TrEMBL record:
Keyword DNA-binding set for record: yes
PANTHER family: ARAC SUBFAMILY, HTH-TYPE TRANSCRIPTIONAL ACTIVATOR RHAS-RELATED
A single GO molecular function term of this UniProt record: sequence-specific DNA binding
Organism phylogeny: Bacteria, Pseudomonadati, Pseudomonadota, Betaproteobacteria, Burkholderiales
Domain HTH araC/xylS-type: 183-281
InterPro entries tied to this protein: AraC_XylS_family_regulators, Homeodomain-like_sf, HTH_AraC
Pfam families documented for this protein: HTH_18 (PF12833)
Keywords: DNA-binding, Transcription, Transcription regulation
Family annotation (Gene3D superfamilies): Homeodomain-like
SMART domains for the chain: HTH_ARAC (SM00342)
Taxonomy, superkingdom: Bacteria
Protein name: Helix-turn-helix transcriptional regulator
Length: 300
């Protein structure tokens, strides 16, 4: 996303700390403070509005007008456009996702040309958007924050929900995941948990639209795709901690966690124990002598 801030006192999205979550996907999380924003972008941007934002907003060369971004909605801003926003009242803030064309082609099964040509759109509502905002707000405001795989799934769902509304296809969901396809999904995850997989990777391996994969996983497991992958990684990590002498660091890498610290935080959150405790509780007499050296990996 290219950015500029030509007017004094206004800054681009860099003021919120843009983060690259995956190839072609950047995101930032704002706080609840008033802000001045002036940015031009070459990628499509979708924002989840976590709480009401009262602003004076100008798009491209148009006039500046009063605009309220309502809580629990989304806003779409097309590529090759410019925004100038003076946000005077901000409650909770927003999460902004910047999507490259390549990323969109990997996850979308619909033509998004219509919303791109239609210009910016605010206050995109619906139950799906509302659910995503509530989830994002809870995670963004939590002390643990959001990890990259979680943010990747959130960005993908946000894109799918927003473009469905923009294209007027909110009720069209014809394809469903078959039992055989769900089995193929399980096989794919078992073979690729150590990799940094994306939603597009998973959908591509099954030959299904990403939306169908999300819906199929939810219908069969009650989990989101994010949660399913996370639970599989935690299950595999527990198995390796119990049955192998791999260091805890190597277990984290083998299960696709971004770091040993990330795995430890998730164990504490999901299981109420640390990986070290799991290993100690299941260590055999044969392995006791190796325990100390296997707990952590040496620094590079």
């Amino acid at each position: 996303m290219s950015q500029n801030a030509n007017q004094a006192g206004r800054r681009g999205m860099e003021q919120f700390g843009m983060v690259a979550s995956a190839p072609g996907l950047d995101y930032c999380v704002s706080g609840a403070q008033p802000y001045s924003l002036d940015f031009a972008h070459t990628s499509d941007v979708i924002c989840l509005v976590l709480g009401e934002i009262v602003s004076q907003t100008q798009y491209d060369d148009g006039p500046a007008n009063p605009l309220t971004f309502h809580a629990e909605t989304a806003a779409f801003h097309p590529r090759n456009s410019r925004m100038r926003i003076e946000a005077k009242t901000v409650r909770h803030g927003f999460i902004a996702f910047s999507y490259s064309g390549e990323f969109q082609r990997g996850i979308s099964d619909k033509n998004v040309a219509a919303p791109i040509c239609a210009g910016s759109r605010e206050n995109i509502g619906g139950d799906g958007i509302k659910h995503l905002v509530r989830y994002a707000r809870g995670r963004a405001l939590s002390t643990g924050g959001v990890n990259h795989w979680e943010m990747h799934c959130l960005a993908t769902l946000t894109y799918l929900e927003a473009t469905r509304h923009l294209n007027g296809t909110g009720g069209q969901r014809k394809l469903k995941m078959s039992d055989a396809e769900f089995e193929r999904l399980n096989e794919y995850l078992s073979e690729n948990l150590e990799r940094s997989v994306t939603c597009a990777d998973i959908a591509g391996a099954l030959g299904l639209p990403v939306r169908v994969v999300f819906d199929g996983v939810k219908a069969r497991t009650g989990y989101s795709l994010y949660r399913l992958v996370l639970e599989r990684r935690i299950d595999l990590a527990q198995q390796l901690l119990r049955d192998t002498d791999l260091s805890i660091c190597d277990v984290a890498v083998s299960c696709g966690f971004s770091s040993q610290q990330h795995m430890t935080a998730l164990f504490s959150e999901r299981l109420g124990v640390t990986p070290l405790r799991v290993r100690k509780e299941h260590v055999s007499p044969r392995s006791t002598a190796k325990l100390t050296s296997s707990l952590t990996c040496s620094a590079p």
